[in-house]
Target: CbtA family protein
Amino acid sequence: MVRRLLILGMVAGVLAGLAAALFARLAIEPSVDLAIAFEAARDAMPGMVHADEPELVSRAVQKGTGLLVAATCYGAALGGIFALVFAALHARVLHGGARVASAWLALAGFVTIALIPALKYPPNPPAVGFHETIQLRTAAFFGCIAVSLVLAAAAVRLAQRLRGRLGSFDAGLAAVVAYGAAMTIVALALPTIDEVPADFPATLLWTFRTGALATQAVLWAVLALVFGRAAERLLRDAR
Model:
């Protein structure tokens, strides 16, 4: 059963990745092109020292084949992990039918992996960020995701322990509040990184960031819908 759920998860992840790639092509790539143009114009200003670097991958490939391949590979990996977590939690933690459980799991994944880390370290387009701090920014971002996942798992355990005394709703609410409080402390403890140029267009920055977050929402939503429907049929036929 777990093997079949894993296959379903990977297939659902590929479809979710395709949907996310299409959305990103329409919602994010125009902002990326504008940001690159801004960076080129700034580097061309008198007094700016800029070493020309060869373009290893053309923009046409980046926003075409490259985006498609990256999104589908990421979606397949995410879908496989999603299916394994679903298989482990469905009977013990996630209640309701497979579609409902899949929706709740996807919502939790979106919040803990995409939304909360983005509030501390929002995605930035080209021309934002220094090369010297890329290792710090990468480590801080993935560290925030790792801590968020650990705290989310702890919140699930807390809800399970409190369910007998408080009931399902109040136990879940207490776990969410505890997770939010803990992540607030973590966010305050992590280094703040603000490298947005003073003259960078605020509208362009906002468009890119909201588009990136919306792309994640599309990815998780399609994954939940496709996997939930397929898993429901699989579990029904297995009875």
